[in-house]
Write a structure and sequence with these properties.
Layout lengths: L2 H12 L3 H20 L4 E3 L3 E8 L2 E4 L6 E4 L2 E8 L1 H7 L1
Antiparallel strand pairs: 1-2, 2-5, 3-4
Helix pairs in contact: 1-2
Length: 90
């Protein structure tokens, strides 16, 4: 499902215009992004939670040259599915 298809489905489900659904969808994503940037965890009970995972710096191997390379530390987004979402999938 693409973003456009998702927005269209949200509009139909909520009974609002596609433009309103697009604005709300964009705002929701921005709020989640801002919370993660601030280091907060976003919990949607039953659906899942978004958090920030910090990966430590490490040494890796370049598969082409077989030489050791340094991989810097970085932060990445993590999503953990909630119980209701897992139950719906199974």
């Amino acid at each position: 499902m693409t973003k456009a298809e998702l927005v269209k489905a949200i509009a139909a489900q909520a009974g609002v215009s596609a433009a309103n659904a697009q604005n709300v969808f964009d705002a929701t994503l921005k709020v989640i992004e801002n919370a993660l940037v601030a280091g907060d965890k976003v919990v949607l009970p039953g659906f899942g939670s978004f958090s920030v995972l910090e990966r430590a710096a490490r040494t890796g191997i370049n598969p082409t040259t077989k030489q050791a390379i340094e991989i810097p530390a970085k932060k990445t987004a993590k999503f953990k599915a909630g119980s209701k979402l897992n139950a719906a999938l199974n």
